[in-house]
Design brief:
The protein is an alpha/beta fold and about 400 residues long. Helices cover about 40% and strands about 20% of the residues. The protein folds into two domains: about 130 residues, Alpha-Beta Complex (Aspartate Aminotransferase, domain 1), CATH 3.90.1150.10; about 260 residues, 3-Layer(aba) Sandwich (Aspartate Aminotransferase, domain 2). Helix 8 runs parallel beside helix 9.
Length: about 400
């Protein structure tokens, strides 16, 4: 008998039969409040009628038209539509299917554009599981375990972590930037540095927002030394943090922006955006992928962007995120094992810590399982798996947020 690989058998025991809005239903029609959103993907909720309608229409029109062979209208329309939301000047867009592939494309672009070898990544960052993306990833040792040698030319610098470093945000920023300056003197001279890649909120690394001063400091150094600032918005983009892009909180402009997950409500689609100068002059060689920029995924993304705009989902993420954070902080106040509640918008983490101050993955795992048992699906993250995170669809309502807080309080 053929079975799933062991890696897939470890997944949650819920057998999802269907999804509707913020809810998933199993084969017995038991309802779960889905605060995982397929790891931040189903931004408009499960099976939003407008996304379903757009995809169904496209399926009956043209499913696949490989974009280096024939171009198709959904991708052209999506590209034009992205112009409404992309940072000014980032007006050339390239499409692939997943976050990891887009990260790989950004590395190719940076190396081509600068002629320099090194990519600097943040300690605790996550950029995917393909070999290039895994080389940039340190959160979750499992991503790299036993698969070396990794891609060369990758250097790591610390991400400011006020909670774990037990200091103020300002002190954490100063320390992280000082270490970055030191790294540019010792391990990756500016003339060898093609780019730094950063997440606006450290995602798999524990839902730690990058302080605006930190991102501004990276921007300054990229300008001063002529390397690129790549912002990985795979998890933080398309409204998730209560602004359209996570980096909007810092008021900086990336040189390369990566987006995926929430872009197409569950259809595989990712993109990188950069200036015309970077994309056209500095990107020779073969690019693309057989399924990149799929027509149905592009139609779903177009519908997603319309729903995000017309249903005010960015503002909803800010409002419901603030409500959820407040509720989680109240729960944490009664449970000292939750040492920190943090995040941005609808991307919130609860860090479990022992009285001695060490990560408490066992209690986090128990709370995570108890929540699922009670009907609330959550995820864990963080270097030790001790952060229970909540990343619901952006359509979540006040009643659903309050219900989730209540279930969480009983699960911890
Ligand atoms: N970058 C970030 C910030 C992510 O959170 C992820 C996935 O969680 C990726 C890249 C990789 O995306 P994918 O799993 O679609 O390859």
């Amino acid at each position: 008998m053929t079975e799933l690989s062991p890696a897939l058998k470890q997944a949650t025991p819920v057998l999802a039969a269907r999804g509707e809005g913020v809810y998933l239903y199993d084969e017995d029609d038991r309802r779960y409040l889905d605060f995982t959103a397929g790891i931040g993907v189903t931004s408009t909720g499960h099976c939003h009628p407008r996304v379903v309608e757009a995809a169904q229409r496209q399926v009956g029109t043209l499913i696949h038209g490989q974009y280096t062979t024939v171009m198709h209208k959904p991708l052209l329309q999506l590209t034009e539509r992205l112009g409404d939301v992309l940072p000014s000047g980032l007006d050339r867009v390239f499409y692939v299917n997943s976050g990891s592939e887009a990260v790989e494309a950004s590395v190719r672009l940076a190396r081509h554009a600068t002629g320099r070898p090194n990519i600097i990544a943040l300690e605790g960052g996550f950029h995917g599981r393909t070999m290039g993306a895994a080389a940039l990833t340190t959160s979750g040792v499992k991503v790299r375990a036993g698969i070396g040698p990794m891609m060369g030319g990758v250097v790591f610098t610390p991400f400011p972590e006020p909670y774990r470093w037990q200091c103020s945000t300002e002190q954490a920023v100063q320390r992280a930037l000082a270490e970055f300056d030191q790294l540019l003197l010792t391990q990756s001279s500016p003339r060898d540095t093609a780019a730094i890649i950063v997440e606006p909120v450290l995602g798999e690394g524990g839902y730690i927002p990058a302080p605006p001063q930190f991102l501004a400091g990276l921007r300054e150094r990229a300008d001063a030394h002529g390397f690129l600032l790549i912002v990985d918005e795979v998890q933080t983009g398309v409204g998730r943090t209560g602004r359209f892009w996570g980096h909007d909180h810092a008021g900086i402009r990336p040189d390369v922006l990566i987006t995926a997950k929430g872009l197409a409500s569950g259809f595989p689609l990712s993109a990188i955006a950069a200036s015309e100068e970077l994309m056209s002059k500095a990107w020779p060689g073969s690019q693309g992928g057989t399924y990149g920029g799929n027509a149905v995924a592009a139609a779903a993304a177009l519908a997603t962007l319309d729903v995000v705009e017309q249903e005010g989902l960015v503002a909803n993420a800010a409002e419901q995120g603030a409500r959820l954070a407040e509720g989680l902080r109240k729960v944490a106040a009664d449970h000292p094992v939750i040492g920190d509640v943090r995040g941005l918008g609808l991307m919130l983490g609860n860090e479990f810590t022992t009285p001695e101050g060490t990560p408490d993955a066992a209690t986090a795992a128990r709370a995570h399982a108890a929540a699922a048992e009670a009907g609330l699906l959550l995820l864990t993250c963080g270097p030790a798996g001790n952060v229970v995170r909540m990343i619901p669809p952006l359509i979540v309502t006040t009643e659903q947020v309050d219900a989730a807080i209540e279930l969480w309080a009983t699960a911890v």
